[in-house]
Amino acid sequence: MTPQSSRGSWADALGFLPVRILRAVLRDLPPQTALRLGAACGRWAAGMGGSGVEVARINLALAFPELSERERGRLLFESYANVGRVVAELALLQGRHREKLLEGVRIEGQEYLAAAEAASPTGGVMVVTAHFGSWDLCAAALTAQGHALTVVQRGFRNPELQAMFSRLRRGEAGDLLELKMGPRAVTGVLRSLRQGRKLVVLADQNAKTEEGVFVPFFGHLACTRFAPAVVAMRRGIPVLPAFVYREGESPRHVVRLAPHLELEPPGSDPEKALTANVANITHSIEEAVRRAPDHWLWLHRRWRTRPDTGEGLDTLANPYPSRRGRLRRIRRILR
After folding, report:
1. Cα torsion for 217, 220, 225, 229, to the nearest 10°?
2. Do strands 198-202 and 125-129 pair parallel, antiparallel, or not at all (unpaired)?
């Protein structure tokens, strides 16, 4: 073992330790108790502040300028409470209540999925969603119900954390493939669609200028990955929005499928069509977030990449504080 791999091994183990402790505490509690504890921890984290809370406050101000500061503060605490519930459910998925938790997920709009499969040249469908609600629980439930999923993801640098998420999404014998986001994922994406699988894409994160186009999101230009739209346009693959909503504060959820989006063909101006289709996908995400704003992960720096000019919509500069500092260096080591 090389010194570097040894260092990576202990750093990965140390970085995974808090997850291991949290899982041990929550995994076998009654689900309602675990969710209440998770929500309380989330609200406590919001009250403690920090860079994530600061980013969430900035995002909420950008998205909902019409709300008062007090209303946005209430929404911030509720969004952190929901993150706490999601963390609790991730622990529960690894304990004795897994089957009960999965049984609490129902799907609305199966007819839209059937229509998308019928419209696809291969039967494959691109499912677009976001870091919204308990999205990993949703993937685990769909896999348990027999759906063949291929998930395109950033992945985690910590291999122990990555392995844990893979296990909880797949279960014992679920048909779920994971592709790490990047150029090498294209081959796996195309193969999955040819095989008639459901390709799950989380399309709500900031992109670099070379991999994205700027489209409106809550009234501001947001750099958004164009690769999913390119694949859908070139291969004639239907794009189906899907979002998971919690029922109150319970461990029950509903996955709402919508009709597949009407994408513009490349035509004589492929770039214009591509931007319009990315905007269409992004609009479906904004609609879901407006419907349940406490469900979205507001601590992501969604508007970090800015256009060279305020082309067409706004002149918003990068609204986020610098990430420099000791805590960030420690996190980098632990990854």
Report:
1. 50
2. parallel
